[in-house]
């Protein structure tokens, strides 16, 4: 049985009511580095995005889910991107919004749920992620979930005028 429900959190589709939450994340300059964002997003654009969020992952090549507590508090988001049906792979990104909610296992549980969904329901063969070499928490999260470091991309991202290296991690469904 496919489930996106864990012990402490569940993953759910985006809803129109998530506009303020998504707006606050997309316009938080502290997370722009991990999302490769360069400019703020308007509520108008995000509302349009939400209106199309119902489209199938096979059509739009991405899937964004809200990480939610059982008291319906939106904690963060987890994304599939660059969904490649032909080659049976997709990228994964995750963000727990509030620093006070981090390191509580929500990201671990969300990643485990999404990984199971991808391998059993979507039939993917592999998942990958890109992590800045100084993002120790994300490296630990993905490594602990079985992702293996497969490469280093030198001077990959320019952040505040200097270049940073980025690791690529991969999880192959055995």
TrEMBL record:
Start and end residues of each N-acetyltransferase domain: 9-173
Pfam families assigned to the protein according to its UniProt record, in alphabetical order: Acetyltransf_3
InterPro entries noted in UniProt: Acyl_CoA_acyltransferase, GNAT_dom
Annotated protein name in UniProt: GNAT family N-acetyltransferase
Taxonomic source organism: Flaviramulus multivorans
């Amino acid at each position: 049985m496919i489930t996106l429900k864990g012990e402490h959190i569940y993953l759910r589709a985006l809803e129109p009511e998530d506009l303020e939450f998504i707006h606050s994340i997309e316009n938080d300059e502290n997370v722009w580095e991990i999302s490769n964002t360069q400019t703020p997003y308007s509520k108008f654009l995000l509302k349009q995005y939400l209106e199309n969020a119902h489209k199938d992952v096979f059509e739009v090549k991405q899937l964004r889910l809200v990480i939610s507590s059982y008291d319906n508090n939106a904690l963060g988001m987890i994304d599939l991107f660059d969904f490649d049906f032909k080659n049976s792979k997709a990228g994964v990104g995750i963000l727990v919004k509030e620093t006070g909610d981090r390191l509580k296992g929500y990201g671990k549980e969300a990643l485990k749920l999404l990984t199971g969904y991808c391998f059993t329901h979507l039939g993917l063969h592999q998942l990958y992620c890109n992590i800045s070499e100084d993002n120790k928490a994300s490296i630990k999260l993905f490594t602990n979930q079985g992702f293996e470091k497969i490469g280093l991309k030198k001077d990959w991202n320019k952040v505040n005028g200097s270049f940073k290296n980025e690791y690529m991690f991969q999880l192959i469904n055995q």
